[in-house]
Amino acid sequence: MNLQPFEFVVRDHGPTVLRVCRAVLGPDDAEDAWSETFLAAMQAYPRLRPDSDIVAWLVTIAHRKAIDHVRAASRRAVTLPELPDRAASQAPGWDETSGLWDALRALPLKQRQTVAYHYLIGLPYREIAAIVGGSEDAARRAAADGIAALRTSATQGALR
Amino acid sequence: MTTDPFDTLPTTDPAAFTRLHQRLESAAGDAGVLDVAYRTMDSPVGTLLLATTDLGMLRVAFDREGIDTVLEDLARDVSPRILRAPARLDGAARELDEYFAGDRRTFDLPLDLRLSHGFRRAVLEQLMHIDYGTTASYGDVAEAAGNPRAARAVGSACRTNPLPLILPCHRVVRSDGSIGQYLGGVEAKQLLLSMEAAA
Fold first, then answer.
1. Which among B2, B4, B82 has CB closest to A6?
2. Average pLDDT, integer, range B110-116
3. Residue B22 maps to a domain
């Protein structure tokens, strides 16, 4: 068994990883995180074992890149004024009227991550725990709390 | 009501994907991790795959070879760091377009011949000397490559030519004048020879 051309990895999993980046970071920072994820993945790709779980591998890289962004954003918030919205208007389903990013942003980061990894791509909690740290049960609880909060936002009409 | 909040999201965003793909192409090139760039193009002999490394043109393939299969072979034989990166092949595509329009007789492209070894490579190097609009027999090429008895091996070198059209194996025909085989199909070979004869 051999590694597939990296283009197939981008083609098959790029859209999913973009959805995850948007759910964790919001539409503005998501594209930078996606770009950093796939560049880092391409660099490391020849050393990947061909029988690896590609999605879990990509999410692991995306998770680290997203954390870098969250840290950079918190530093920026102290020293720099808020950047104007750039990508939000270009991300279908993520514009301000949908309320989705507002609802996600209200969640603690770990809930946002576990919700995205479980509900957007269906990673099992055992793998999610390996990526975000902590136990499988803690990952399951974080995702359950997060999705419950999002559903409450939806029934309250915050999500349209 | 317990609809998932993500249900309303589109699963794909083609505009963003195009933007991000282009960004990856240039970032990977700048970082030196784009080992093989490829694109496809339309031609009178069907869709063609063009692939290049930093050294030069690596592969031209016909649709009937299976584009994905050829890319999988390149991933195994050269590097899996392969991306569709059309800008890198603009020059090659332009030269091929000119060739099919009858406006070009030789190609001016750097070549990466790493996919061919030994006698097969010697055969490929002889192909460059068969002029536009002319043909040579398998035996002629065998002799020029240094082994007059190896006409059959010349046939197999042509069948595995990684750079058809650029290295003109379509100009190699049987000594009895019949057209012989072609990786792109006998009809394609006939079309190319007629086109060159008419130009």
1. B82
2. 97
3. yes
